[in-house]
């Protein structure tokens, strides 16, 4: 590898994670994009390749470009960078496609500049990519992509991201039914008010999930993966959702839910073998309904973005 | 001590704990009641002494009596017990006065019967005492009194209590302004619906608090002790509340909030010296207003109920 160039793996991420709506996220290990970021003499940022998805390449229309520019503006640097993006995550699938690109850009540029910024600062720059992608500068995908493992976005003002311990045998299975659900649509159908009683259940479950992650209590993780607020509403947009949940449970999954704003559905399992079995069971549901799908099985990635040789 | 008799310490408890409304609680170490529970030939339960508070002594009107009877009914035992209660926690103060009595009864009776029941089962019996005291069989005081430390009541159906790690240097300061706020009143003024946006902040903070407790990150514990839902409403019933909060913070407290349904106010600090300073600052507020008060400073009790020699 050349000195002024980085080839990196940018992980897919599961946001919301059931009871953790808008605050929790987790990074995947074997699902993600690749990017090459290269220092060049010409100032600014140029997207020189974008393979695998039909997305805009103009710097200020591309999430990696916008996130990178936010970093450069703050750094006062006069350097220039070329970015090649090899998309393997499908846009709109609900596993953080835009977050992978924007975090990859800021992580690599920061590294090539000699790391002037902290990981938390990188989250802020990457959030500008999310603002471009969805209209909302949310952090629940970019935070786990940058920190790795599970992250809790405790607060936005000021931004406070808490990395949460990830049990070593925790695996995710994600199935992506090839239907389109726009983030803006799936946000629109949410209610602005909730029952206090449902809220209490939700923060009880989130507390249980965080405790289960720290104590590596897989059973507690499973019991806590219940969403009383968002899943009952959003799952209506996802065909076969209830069936996918029930077959996952029967195949041994700890629990399951909507990944991000959907349409992907995730399940957590203890151990890879169970996660694979869950994937097989999920597949059969969509094969019967006749919906195309992708299935991913991955360990939770504790590192975040990784340099590839 | 006689073979068929136990003298025990029954801890005061802080329920709700700011962002943990209706799910979180913590046990105190140096504030609590004493009880003597004695096996006697006569079947059933008799409250033979009740010192320090004016409370009913008829078994089925007394929280310790009712909780003990719930245990005996389930056990099918023909044994009988006498209970002496030495109240040091004031009823209605918001630090689990009824929970101390009901948990003490079931813990000691279970011990004298050879421990047929698990701690979780004891929580269920003690909840019957809470039902008598407040009309609601809540567990957020009785769970920490029985398990010790911090506990999360993740769910009621089925009952799921999660003991949460307590950092070793965590101290509580509690001030009890001697005004009456009935639990039923302070529950009545709560709204049945909340903003989703406030809910998200609340479960973000609860997740942060649980993470802070496990990682012994005192600063994170402090940042997470924010209640967007209940405190803004209930604090109206507590004179000087905002001032108590601000002087606590200035004196070095990590954070503060309403203990249970009030009127007591708690603050957490790192180390006993700071917790004492916080107590002094709190006192001055009520001295100025002219309200009588009690102040307690205590380590978080990791053991729960303790046998006294």
UniProtKB/TrEMBL annotation, chains A, B:
EC number in record: 2.7.1.39
Pathway the protein contributes to: Amino-acid biosynthesis; L-threonine biosynthesis; L-threonine from L-aspartate: step 4/5
Catalytic activity: L-homoserine + ATP = O-phospho-L-homoserine + ADP + H(+)
Keyword field: Amino-acid biosynthesis, ATP-binding, Cytoplasm, Kinase, Nucleotide-binding, Threonine biosynthesis, Transferase
GO molecular function, one term: homoserine kinase activity
Protein localization: Cytoplasm
GHMP kinase C-terminal domain sequence ranges: 210-287
Enzyme class: transferase
Domain GHMP kinase N-terminal positions: 70-149
One cellular-component annotation, GO: cytoplasm
Gene Ontology BP, a term: threonine biosynthetic process
Pfam families: GHMP_kinases_C (PF08544), GHMP_kinases_N (PF00288)
Function: Catalyzes the ATP-dependent phosphorylation of L-homoserine to L-homoserine phosphate.
Family the UniProt entry places it in: Belongs to the GHMP kinase family. Homoserine kinase subfamily.
Name under which the protein is recorded: Homoserine kinase
Organism of origin: Euzebyella marina
């Amino acid at each position: 590898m050349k000195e002024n160039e980085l080839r990196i793996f940018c992980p897919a991420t599961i946001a919301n994670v059931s009871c953790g709506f808008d605050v929790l996220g987790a990074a995947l290990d074997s699902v993600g994009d690749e990017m090459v970021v290269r220092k060049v003499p010409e100032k600014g940022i140029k997207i020189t390749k974008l393979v695998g998805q039909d997305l805009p390449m103009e710097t200020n229309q591309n999430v990696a470009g916008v996130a990178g520019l936010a970093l450069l503006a703050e750094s006062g640097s006069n350097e220039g960078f070329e970015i090649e993006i090899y998309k393997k995550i499908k846009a709109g699938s609900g596993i953080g496609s835009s977050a992978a690109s924007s975090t990859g850009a800021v992580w690599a540029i920061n590294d090539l500049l000699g790391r002037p910024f902290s990981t938390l600062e990188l989250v802020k720059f990457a959030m500008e990519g999310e603002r471009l992608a969805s209209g909302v500068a949310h952090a629940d995908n970019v935070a786990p992509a940058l920190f790795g493992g599970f992250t809790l976005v405790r607060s936005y003002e000021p931004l406070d991201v808490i990395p949460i311990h990830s049990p070593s045998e925790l695996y995710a299975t994600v199935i992506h039914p090839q239907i389109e659900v726009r983030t803006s649509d799936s946000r629109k159908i949410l209610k602005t008010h909730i029952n206090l009683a449902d809220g209490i259940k939700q923060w009880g479950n989130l507390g249980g999930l965080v405790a289960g992650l720290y104590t590596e209590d897989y059973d507690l993780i499973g019991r806590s993966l219940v969403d009383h607020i968002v899943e009952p509403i959003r799952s209506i947009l996802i065909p076969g959702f209830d069936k996918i949940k029930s077959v996952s449970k029967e195949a041994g999954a700890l629990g399951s839910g909507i990944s991000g704003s959907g349409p992907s559905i995730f399940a957590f399992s203890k151990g890879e073998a169970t996660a694979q079995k869950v994937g097989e069971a999920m597949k059969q549901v969509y094969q019967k309904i006749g919906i195309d799908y992708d299935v991913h099985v991955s360990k939770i990635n504790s590192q975040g973005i990784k340099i590839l040789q």
